[in-house]
Design goal:
seven-stranded mixed sheet, 25% helix, disordered N terminus, alpha/beta, seven-stranded antiparallel sheet
């Protein structure tokens, strides 16, 4: 497989260090583990509940400079990638997350040409960005090379994006990479981040969003993972408030269903910089109609233009809070 890469009972700690953390720094440790043939994910981010999958076989266990990495074969969701006790993806439902975090922003602007992915070492976002013939250059900055290597070995249908010659892989700190990016470098930035626990909080605060805004062209867009409306409205409030202060174009919240994520849903913050107007709720670059143009990565499984628009329809309790913050 050709690589287009520029490389500059089991108890597991639960915190996944991300860009900006010290090597080996682990906080909020709990006891995600495999017991009696079941993997259970437990965290202070979702107290009083746990999600479990039946394990057929552990395929890989390793420890990188940053985190514990495990892959297991589940009975119902295919292979599962786990980082420091937290499920990152499963073969069955990864499409819902990867397709939505990518196509919600990229279908909202005409002819994106240069895209940055922060995190996303499994390659799923790259696979989706590669569907766009207008894209000329894709940078990805992932802190942990083991995640990249393990994904290529065990999840080739996800990591297929690395084979695209437009992809440039940078192993390192995504926060520093963004700070060093020239002003106006990108049409879109996609931040595939983990939960804001400990130092990872940096990826959800104003200084980071300012770096993102600086790196975007006028009318450029960012999409970042933004937690669950069922579990984290207090976090979402802060994210919306920070984004409203930094991004002078559009600021919107969308969500999708991912059964193996806590509460079964995950949200996305979508923002644009000042410049050409971006209406995230009305896709203008319909990737689902051009599905045959990228046969090498397979057909879309989840995203379409109807679900794009529906993703911005919020339940009343969330809509009230988010709209209040977004209007201030």
């Amino acid at each position: 497989m050709a690589e287009q890469t520029t490389t500059t009972t089991i108890e597991l700690p639960l915190k996944r260090p991300r860009e900006g953390e010290e090597n080996g720094a682990v906080s909020h440790e709990t006891s995600s583990h495999i017991s009696s043939g079941w993997f259970s994910e437990i965290s202070p981010m979702w107290p009083g509940e746990a999600h479990s999958l039946k394990v057929e076989k552990v395929l890989f266990q390793g420890k990188s400079d940053y985190q514990n990495v495990m892959v297991f074969q589940s009975e119902t969701y295919g292979k599962v990638l786990v980082l420091d006790g937290v499920i990152q993806l499963t073969e069955r439902d990864e499409c819902a997350y990867q397709e939505m975090i990518t196509h919600l922003p990229l279908c909202s602007i005409p002819n994106p040409k240069k895209v940055l992915v922060v995190g996303g070492g499994d390659g799923g976002v790259l696979r989706e960005v590669a569907r766009y013939s207008s894209v000329e250059h894709i940078d990805i900055c992932e802190i942990d090379k083991m995640v990249v290597d393990v994904s290529k070995e065990f999840f080739p249908d996800v990591a297929v994006g690395y084979d695209d010659p437009r992809v440039n892989l940078h192993i390192g700190d995504g926060v520093a990479f963004l700070k060093a990016a020239p002003e106006g470098s990108y049409d879109a930035v996609i931040v595939d981040s983990s939960d804001p626990i400990g130092p990872a909080q940096e990826l959800f605060e104003k200084p980071f969003f300012k770096s993102v805004a600086k790196a975007l062209r006028p009318g450029g867009v960012v999409c970042t993972q933004a937690e669950s409306i069922w579990l984290h409205m207090h976090i979402i409030e802060d994210i919306v408030a920070n984004c409203r202060q930094v991004f002078k174009g559009s600021v919107n919240y969308a969500w999708t269903t991912v059964p193996t994520y806590p509460s079964g849903v995950i949200g996305f913050m979508l923002c644009s910089t000042e410049g050409p107007e971006v209406d995230f709720k009305k896709p203008i670059n319909p990737i689902d109609e051009n599905d045959n143009e990228c046969k090498s990565v397979g057909p879309l499984k989840f995203y379409n233009k109807e679900i794009h628009t529906a993703a911005f329809c919020l339940p009343s309790f969330a809509k009230k809070v988010i709209e209040a913050k977004a209007s201030k």
